[in-house]
């Protein structure tokens, strides 16, 4: 009887639970993996908010809805703290609010494995309490030995106080976790190519760089270039995008170029605020970015890692306009690897924007480096390699 029960357990579909921060740059990078695992016969649930339930369902997972304390997907940048300590406080509050919700939601349906985003801290607690393995999914740069000394990182008294709050909460939940477990991972799939990682040679073997896991996003609208003119895409992402004056500079910079310009201004900006729109511009609050980039010749981006990887996958030269968080590090890396250039959002002039476009689209070095980067991305394994790692933990 026991053997029969054990064989039944082994042959049933594995239940894999995804958990992430409810934000485009954290949900989108993992949706391809969700679809791949479902196609391989696994049962996937995804703990998320109402904002992202449609995308999750379209990928084949069952949404497990919860209420988040974080700003929603259409929130203004001002709702997100710029200081690291304040952000850590916000994520601690989120974890404390979400853990009990998911404990209840999964009470009768425990997963066999949790795949979690770098900001899905609730997964750390739940995997410890449920005694199930976990796999981190990182869409950005990861921890490496000596990172504090390399970048001169020092923790202020305020930062240490917040870290102590994490340790206290972890202990209250009956776990042996500490704050350092938030930053480091025993097993992690990184959705960038290793060469884009700072000091990639110093990253532990527990981190596997598979490159971006991009798939067709059926939940997004289709898009087709209207004619044979080259396409310029302009987007500052989904959070820090209320930059009316910058968009006006773009209008002045590219109004008389023989390009088709697709500019996404975000939910918090009314295109009417920008004044007269030149005929070669298509200005929207949102665009199906991956589809547009597949036909683009240049990309002005805030250098969020999601958009950066999408651009590199399609060999599109980048003009980075970083706004916050890791975007400044990404923008610097774009320049160092000669994949594009960087400009300052506040001080850049229309003339400088136009010169930057000319630079990145005429440089033979940038063209060759983009081709090399795409080759590395394709050779990193992507979805197939990531799915194999997931299955090895079941």
UniProtKB/TrEMBL annotation:
Organism from which the protein derives: Saccharopolyspora shandongensis
Gene Ontology BP term (one): antibiotic biosynthetic process
InterPro entries for the chain: EryCIII-like_C, Glycosyltransferase_28, UDP_glucos_trans, UDP_glycos_trans_CS, UDPGT_MGT-like
Protein family per UniProt: Belongs to the UDP-glycosyltransferase family.
Keyword Transmembrane helix annotated: no
GO molecular function: hexosyltransferase activity; UDP-glycosyltransferase activity
PROSITE patterns: UDPGT (PS00375)
PANTHER family according to UniProt: STEROL 3-BETA-GLUCOSYLTRANSFERASE, STEROL 3-BETA-GLUCOSYLTRANSFERASE UGT80A2
Gene3D superfamilies assigned: Glycogen Phosphorylase B (3.40.50.2000)
Pfam families membership: EryCIII-like_C
Signal sequence interval, chain numbering: none
Top-rank lineage group of the source organism: Bacteria
This protein's name: Glycosyltransferase, MGT family
Domain spans labelled Erythromycin biosynthesis protein CIII-like C-terminal: 250-379
SUPFAM superfamilies: UDP-Glycosyltransferase/glycogen phosphorylase
CDD domains the UniProt entry points to: GT1_Gtf-like
Keywords: Antibiotic biosynthesis, Transferase
């Amino acid at each position: 009887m026991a053997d029969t029960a054990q064989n039944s357990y082994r042959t049933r579909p594995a239940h894999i639970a995804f958990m992430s921060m409810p934000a485009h740059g954290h949900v989108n990078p993992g949706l391809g993996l969700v679809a791949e695992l479902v196609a391989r016969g696994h049962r996937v649930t995804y703990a998320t908010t109402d904002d992202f339930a449609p995308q999750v369902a379209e990928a084949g997972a069952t949404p497990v809805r919860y209420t988040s304390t974080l700003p929603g997907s259409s929130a203004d940048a001002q709702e997100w703290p710029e200081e690291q300590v304040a952000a850590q406080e916000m994520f601690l509050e989120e974890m404390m609010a979400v853990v009990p919700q998911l404990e209840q939601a999964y009470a009768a349906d425990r997963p066999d494995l949790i795949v979690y985003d770098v900001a899905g801290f609730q997964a750390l607690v739940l995997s410890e309490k449920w005694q199930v393995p976990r796999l981190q999914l990182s869409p950005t740069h990861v921890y490496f030995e000596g990172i504090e000394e390399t970048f001169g990182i020092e923790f202020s008294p305020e930062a240490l106080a917040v870290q102590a709050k994490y340790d206290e909460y972890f202990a209250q939940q009956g776990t042996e976790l500490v704050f350092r477990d938030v930053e480091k991972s025993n097993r992690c799939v990184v959705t960038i190519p290793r060469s884009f990682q700072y000091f990639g040679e110093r990253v532990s073997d527990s981190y596997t760089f598979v490159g971006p896991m991009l798939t067709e996003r059926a939940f997004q609208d289709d898009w087709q270039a209207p004619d044979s003119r080259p396409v310029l895409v302009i987007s500052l992402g989904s959070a820090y995008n209320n930059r009316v004056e910058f968009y006006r500079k773009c209008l002045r910079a590219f109004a008389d170029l023989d390009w088709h310009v697709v500019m996404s201004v975000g939910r918090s900006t009314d295109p009417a605020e920008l004044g007269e729109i030149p005929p070669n511009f298509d200005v929207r609050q949102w665009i199906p970015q991956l589809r547009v980039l597949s036909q683009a010749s240049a990309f002005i981006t805030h250098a969020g890692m999601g958009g950066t990887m999408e651009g590199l996958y399609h060999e599109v030269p980048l003009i980075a306009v970083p706004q916050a968080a890791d975007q400044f590090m990404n923008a610097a890396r774009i320049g160092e690897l000669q994949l594009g250039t960087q400009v300052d959002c506040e001080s850049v002039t229309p003339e400088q924007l136009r010169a930057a476009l000319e630079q990145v689209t005429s440089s033979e070095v940038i063209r060759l480096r983009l081709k090399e980067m795409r080759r590395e991305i394709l050779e990193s394994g992507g979805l197939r390699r990531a799915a194999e790692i997931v299955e090895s933990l079941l």
